[in-house]
Amino acid sequence: MKDIAQFEESIGKKFRPWFIKDIRLNEESDCLRSLLTRHSKLLCIMNHGGFYGPWAAALAFHYLLLTHGGQGRKPTGVAWRGFYSLPIHKQITQYLTQLDRPLDYPGFKELLLNQTFNDLIILPEGTNCHYFDGKTLQPFVSPRFIELSIETQTPLLLFVHQGSEHWSQTVHLPKALIPMTRLLPKRYRDGIEQNRLINIPHMLKGCIPQMNVMCKIYQPSIHPSALRDKPFAKELIELEARKIRSMMQTHYDSLLTQATAGEYSDHSSRVNEEVVTHPCVEVA
């Protein structure tokens, strides 16, 4: 299995300078170096952003781990199943996730318990990211990552990024075109009809000027014994999911406010220079 240092040699050095100009770890983040030292495994929960958001987020994730003592950590991730059957996307997805096929819940649970990988990246908004304004976190397609965290005793690293919306454009769908959505599968149709928005992916604006990231550790408050009562556990997990989504939205809003105010302009860490870490915040 490839570690972060190996990914840096094969991907980071080649592609990151082309796609992202600056990467900034927000000073309100928990100390990433301390987190990586204290936790041998983490469930990294990212906001999705636009269609290409995960690729930009992955480059930022690898870079920040590389520059904060995580060179030897081995990452994997949950990707849309369809990517494993699409030409080109298949090879890229297999390389980045280090998996030759999509896994189900028991498969990822086994990987964490056996410590095959240190970090599992999940973007719980999933396909809901296609129908949003680029700034609002969407409802999670599945909250089972919370159950996975509880069962494997793996903390959540809330990895919220801002800047990848540079590669997308929100289009308001005219009411007259709504009937055409009936040709789409129900889950896509419902999303479009409810929001009347489509997030169009593109890279026409070129390199992302700056990726701003906030990292916060979070441990679900649900006791493992509560999972035995399935109906009760489902309700608790859904409540926890709404809480996590709200926290991530707050983090994103903070990043966007600071980026809009230009507070990052003189303090960003350029990807081609030695990173300057922020003062560590004590991890609870």
Please describe what this structure looks like:
There is one protein chain. With 284 residues, the protein is α/β, with parallel strands linked by helices. The protein has helices spanning 4-19, 32-38, 53-66, 89-97, 105-113, 144-152, 186-195, 230-260, and strands spanning 20-25, 42-46, 75-77, 119-122, 156-162, 168-172, 197-201, 208-218, 269-270. A seven-stranded mixed β-sheet has the order 3-4-2-5-8-1-9, with helices on both faces. The protein has a two-stranded antiparallel ribbon with strand order 6-7. The longest helix is centred in the last third of the chain and has 31 residues, at 230-260.
Compile the SSE list and pairings.
Layout: H1 4-19, E1 20-25, H2 32-38, E2 42-46, H3 53-66, E3 75-77, H4 89-97, H5 105-113, E4 119-122, H6 144-152, E5 156-162, E6 168-172, H7 186-195, E7 197-201, E8 208-218, H8 230-260, E9 269-270
Parallel strand pairs: 1-8, 2-4, 2-5, 3-4
Antiparallel strand pairs: 1-9, 5-8, 6-7
Helix pairs in contact: 1-3, 5-6
What are the key terms here?
single chain, 284 residues, alpha/beta, seven-stranded mixed sheet, two-stranded antiparallel sheet, disordered C terminus
In short:
With 284 residues, this protein is of the alpha/beta class. Helix content is 37%, strand content 17%. The chain has helices spanning 4-19, 32-38, 53-66, 89-97, 105-113, 144-152, 186-195, 230-260, and strands at 20-25, 42-46, 75-77, 119-122, 156-162, 168-172, 197-201, 208-218, 269-270.
